[in-house]
Each structure stands twice: as C-alpha cells, then as structure tokens.
Amino acid sequence: AIYRIEEEIRGLPPAERLATRRRRTRPLVRALRRQLMRQANGLSRHADIAKAFAYGTKRWRAFNRFLYDGQLEPDNLIAERAIRGFTVGRRNWLFSGNFAAAERSAVVLSIIETCKLCGVDAEAYMADVIERIQNDWPASRWDELMPWNWVRRHEMPLPLAA
User: Fold this and answer.
1) How far is 33 from 25, CA to CA, in rounded Å?
2) pLDDT tens sequence across 7-23
3) Nearest to 70 by CA among 150, 13, 130
4) Residues 96-137: tens digit of each pLDDT
C-alpha cells in the first residue's frame, strides 16, 4: 500500500507529496510498527526473522525520514540500481593496482552514474568540466559544474516542427 501511494504521488511537488504522506502513509507506517512489535515479542531473539525485526526497529527513525521530507524516497532503490553494475563487477576491480587508483575509479564511476541520473552525456560533461577547471574556473563557482546544474546550461532547444 505504501508503494501504491508513492506511485500516485511520484512527480508531484515535495509539499504535496509530504501532505499525502502525512494523511495516508503515516497511519500505515504506524500500523506496521505496531504489527512488528507484536510479532517480535513472540520470537526467539536468535531466529533470523527476529534479527530482521531488530534491524528494522533500530533503524526505525531513518526509515521514517521520508514521512517528514517530501523530497526523499521511502527507500534507496535508485542508488541500488545505479550501483548494480559496479556491484556485479566488484571482484574484477579488486586489483586496481593500489588504493589511490581504486579511489579514483570510484570517483569517476560516481560522476558517471550521477550524470546518468541527471540525463547528462557523461563524456561531454567530463570533457567540458575538465577544460573549465584547467582554464582556472573559480572555486567559488564549482557548484555550477555539478551535473544537475551543468545540464541546465547545456540543454539544447528542441527543433521546431517542420
């Protein structure tokens, strides 16, 4: 039910999402917590399901955060999907040469995935940003070079219909 509500409010302004969550989702989340607490009381604390309940209970505040901020999602599936390819290839990257090389790879991969999420051509983005930095782009304006800001300045107008 929570995800059905999220599907309905996807794309709405954060204030509207928040109002809907307070009205419709919060009661469901409270009921879920009551149910978890009731069921957890009858379980052996060594049971796997009891460990899962304990994990959820410890992190309940973090889980609820989306109920107080209309910009947040109820889960991290966007991030999980973004790193899936890296997770699959993780064993191949164990031998980056050294820690610094692995760290640089992680930075580049993070930039590429952020570009994808922003609808930015990562190759064009990195070429442009590297050139700007080499030409003494002021540090006070680095926020303009973030993919989500960069894309606004580089959007191409749609061609007029013939």
Assistant:
1) 13
2) 999 999 999 999 999 99
3) 13
4) 677 788 788 888 888 988 898 888 999 999 999 999 999 999
- What whole-number distance in Å separates Cα of residue 95 and Cα of residue 73? 35
Gap between the Cα atoms of 4 and 82, Å rounded: 23
Q: Is the CB of residue 25 less than 8 Å from the CB of residue 2?
A: yes
CA separation for the pair 11, 89 (Å, rounded): 32
Q: Among 23, 10, 13, 31, which residue's Cα sits nearest to residue 73?
A: 10
CB 50 within 8 A of CB 43: yes
Dig out the tokens for 119 from the structure: 């609808």
Whether residue 82 contacts residue 115, with contact meaning beta carbons closer than 8 Å, is answered with no
